[in-house]
Amino acid sequence: MMELISFFDHRKKTSVYKAKNGDQQAFLSLIDENRLNVYRVARGILKNEEDMKDAIQNTLIKAFENMCTLKKDEYFKTWLIRILINECNETLRKNKRSISLNETMDHINEQYDDYYKNMDLIYAIHSLSEELRVTITLFYFEDISVKSISEILEIPQGTVKSRLNRARTKLKEILGEDE
User: Rounded to two decimals, what is the model's pTM?
Assistant: First the structure.
């Protein structure tokens, strides 16, 4: 079993190495491996499908253009998600205009075709502040460790833990669950 894991780790490192040296197929392979993660993170931050598509597209362009700046190959996923979060935040800054409650509910009501179809949970997550929404999405939907989230968001691990705790508390309140 360890040999199989080692084989896949080696293959992934080789793909990153090739992508850093301009191999487009290797880059596309890496993106394909991470496409669901990228989608879920974008969906966790942005509410509008078009904004999500734009942020993802911009992320892929920037990642491809800046592959050579990736210092450690094993951090490709973390690096890619950091770029995505920056793109999503930029989209949010650009869209800082007032949106009516009806428009917001229309965006929330969009049907997402993935495994997380519990709309009550999606409503609850989208009602969280951006910092809590990003943290909870990375931790629970992307299975990223507290340490890695700390690195991605460039905040202390204690802050990540605090945000996770606040997000859980707010989600319990919103969903009406008792301790």
Answer: 0.64
pLDDT at 127: 87
What are the φ/ψ torsions at residue 143 (nearest 5 degrees)? 55, 40
Q: Which domain holds residue 127?
A: 115-179
Which amino acid appears at position 150 of this protein?
A: S
Give, for all 179 residues of the chain, the pLDDT tens digit. Answer: 555 444 444 455 578 888 888 888 999 999 999 999 999 899 888 888 999 999 999 999 999 999 988 888 888 999 999 999 999 988 888 877 535 444 554 554 444 444 445 567 778 888 889 899 989 988 888 888 999 899 888 899 999 999 999 999 998 888 886 54
CA distance 38 to 52: 10
Residues 161 and 86 in one domain: no
Closest CA to 143 of 12, 36, 4: 36
Using CA atoms, how far apart are residues 138 and 22, in angstroms rounded to an integer? Answer: 29
Residue that is last in its domain, among 50, 72, 99: 99
Would you state the structure tokens that stand for residue 57, as one six-digit string? 């597209």
Instruction: Kindly list the distances between the CA atom of residue 6 and the CA atoms of 2, 49, 73, 148, in Å, as whole numbers in the listed order.
Output: 6, 37, 15, 21
